[in-house]
Amino acid sequence: MTRGVAAWLVAVLATVMMATGCSHTTGAADGTAAGHPASRIVSDPGPSADLLLRLDSYDLSIQQHVEIQRAENRFLRQCMGNFGLDLRTPGTRPLPYPRNMPLLGQLDALHVSRYGYQGPPGVAADLIAVSKNGSWDITVQPALLPVFEGRIGSFHGKPVPAGGCFGELQRRLDAGAKTVRFDAETPPVIPERGIRLFKSQVYDQATHDSRFRRIVAEWSRCMGRKGFRYDSPEQAQGDPRWSNAGAHARPGAAQIRTAVADDHCRRTVHYTGTLYGLMLAYEQPVIRAQRHVLQEINALLEARLRNSAALAAGP
C-alpha cells in the first residue's frame, strides 16, 4: 500500500533523525535545572516566516543546495550515459518554503482547512526535500549499480572510474576542500549532512526538555476540549485513518476537522515558538563545542558550490 502524504511531518522527523544517527541525550527533567539553557520566549511566526537557527549560518541556502543537486544529476546522467546506461534522476525545482518549517511543526504550507494534513499536490515531497537541504533521493536500478558504484573495473571496454560515476562525482565536488574531521564523540556522518547532524541533536534535546513537554500536554488538553484524543501533534498527524490512505486519496471531513483543530491548538499553546526558542538555546553550547567542525563543513559546502559549476563540462 502506498503510504499517504498526510503523515509527512512524522516521516520528515524520522528521516532527519535516522539519516543523522542522532541518539537521545538525557538530562534533568526540569528544563530550568542546572545544565539546561535558559530559553527566551519567541512569539509564534506568521505564515512563511523563515525561522533560522544559528547553525544555519554555517550552511548553504536551500536554493544553493538545489543548484548543486541539479549539477550532480546532470553529471551522473552524462557519466552513466558514456557507458550506454540510462540513469533517471529526480527533478529539482525551487523550494519556496522556510528552511526549518518541517522541523518546527509549522502547518502553514498545508492549507489544512482545504487539504487537511495532505496539503496541496506535491507539497509533501517538497517539504521532505526542504528537511533534507533541498535534496531529492536518487533511485539507482540494480543493473546500473556496478558502474554507478565502481564495483567493476570496466564496462563494454571502457574503464570505470574508481568508485564509479558516484565516486568521480564526489572527487570533483570536493576538489580543493579539506576533509572534515569530527571529534571522537561525534557519530560518523557524511560531511555535507553535518549541519543536519548537529541540528537533530539540538532538536532532540529541545523536545525532551520539560518546558516543551508541558507545551505538548497543553496542546493535548486543547485538542481534548475540541473532542479529539491525541497525546501529541505527531500522533494526530500520523493517525492511521489518513496516514495509511493512498497517496492520491482525498482528505475526508474527519481529517480536515482534526487538522484545523490541531493547527489552532498549536498556535494557542505557542508550539512552534516554544520549540524554536528552545532550539536557539540548546544550539549555543553545540556551536561552542563544535565550531571548528562547523567551519570545516561550511568550507566543504562552499567548495562544492563552486565546483558544481564546473560539472557542466561533464565527466
Protein architecture, described:
- With 315 residues, the chain is mostly helical.
- The chain has one domain (5-16, 45-313).
- The protein is built from 12 helices and 2 strands, in the order H-H-H-H-H-E-E-H-H-H-H-H-H-H.
- It has helices spanning 8-20, 62-81, 112-115, 123-131, 145-149, 164-173, 194-207, 210-225, 233-237, 240-243, 253-269, 271-308, and strands spanning 154-155, 158-159.
- It has a two-stranded antiparallel ribbon with strand order 1-2.
- Helix 8 (210-225) crosses helix 11 (253-269) and helix 8 crosses helix 12.
- Mean pLDDT is 84; it is low at 1-8 and 11-34.
For this entry, give a set of tags.
315 residues; mainly alpha; 2 strands
Brief description of this entry?
The protein has 315 residues and is mainly α.
